[in-house]
Amino acid sequence: MNIYPRLFFLQRDHDVSGISGTGRVADGVLWPDGSVSVRWRGARPSLVHWSCLDDVEAIHGHGGATQIVWIDAGEVTHAEAA
Q1: pTM given for the model
Q2: Residue 1 domain-assigned?
Q3: What pLDDT shows up at residue 73?
Q4: Residue ranges making up the domain that contains 33
Q5: How many other CB atoms are found less than 10 A from the CB of residue 64?
Q6: For a 10 Å CB count at each end of the chain, is N or C smaller?
Q7: What residues have CB less than 8 Å from 12, skipping those under 6 apart?
């Protein structure tokens, strides 16, 4: 488990839903307890809290159309972050 929050963003290559667009669509924090906060960008921004990174990926990953990109402390794989 990390002792510091980790920063990431969601990079969407293909907008499956036709709502959020493509590119950097959200910013996120992986908290030391494993929970995740995601702040959506765009015309109607929102903040969502998830119990784990797996839930974020399951709901918003769209089968690989959206990637989790780490922006602090070097590259870390999803498995290492979980």
Answers
A1: 0.75
A2: no
A3: 61
A4: 6-81
A5: 9
A6: N
A7: 20, 21, 22, 23, 25, 62, 65, 66, 67
